[in-house]
Specification:
Alpha-Beta Plaits, 210 residues, globular, 2 domains, 20% strand, alpha+beta, 6 helices
Length: 210
């Protein structure tokens, strides 16, 4: 069922390597929360994005690759859908991956100073999925190193940043050790397990920067 008067346009963007034994039916089941939210009867019906210049949700069976560049109208309840999808994708993933989700406030106009709320309710969330916590942490580590090095290269030569990268690696090693330890003694893990990652707010982000 189409959604009307929704406060957000929600853009989901990411690429995920799937296990070799995962076919279309398994992927369709994993993504069921997404296509049901869009009011579709199946993944095929929901695969097209709200914007024609976006490829939508595609499955490259020969490469065992899921690609998403897909926009849907929705509300804050979409966050619950994302939680379900992350858990499902963990079960079909071959490697860790990051998925970007951006909420665009449909009531906000950059050029309209009289916008209802005065500022946009845009939001950005980075999700991490993978077959196990180690794979998820590896993706988080790689993204953090990329961000830190990119920022610090404005002031230092890249060759000088080996120590910084080593410290980041040390932090993730400690987090992974703590996770393993907590699992061994039967306590809930404190580290990330394959759901929401980082990200909120900030300035209004251009819609298409892929």
């Amino acid at each position: 069922m189409p959604r009307y008067n929704t406060p957000f346009e929600i853009h989901v963007h990411g690429q995920l390597a799937l296990r070799a034994d995962v076919g279309f039916d398994s992927l369709q089941e994993a993504l069921k929360p997404l296509w049901k939210y869009a009011g579709a009867r199946n993944l095929t019906d929901a695969a097209a994005s709200a914007y024609e210049d976006e490829p939508g949700i595609t499955f490259a069976s020969d490469e065992h690759l899921l690609q998403m560049c897909w926009t849907v109208a929705g509300d804050d309840d979409f966050r619950q859908v994302l939680d379900e999808v992350c858990m499902n994708l963990n079960d079909v993933a071959a490697l860790g991956a990051a998925i970007e989700v951006t909420f665009y406030d449909t009531d906000f106009d950059d050029e309209d100073e009289q916008s209802p709320e005065g500022e946009s309710r845009d939001d950005f969330v980075m999700l991490f999925v993978g077959p196990n916590p180690a794979a998820i942490m590896q993706v988080q580590r790689d993204l953090l190193v990329q961000d830190v090095v990119s920022m610090m290269e404005r002031h230092f030569d890249g060759a000088e940043l080996g120590g910084v990268v080593a410290e980041v690696d040390k932090l993730f090693a400690q987090r992974f050790d703590a996770l393993v330890s907590s699992l061994e003694i039967g306590k809930p893990p404190r580290g990330p397990g394959g759901g929401f990652g980082s990200g909120h707010g900030g300035g209004r982000k251009p819609r298409h920067l892929h």
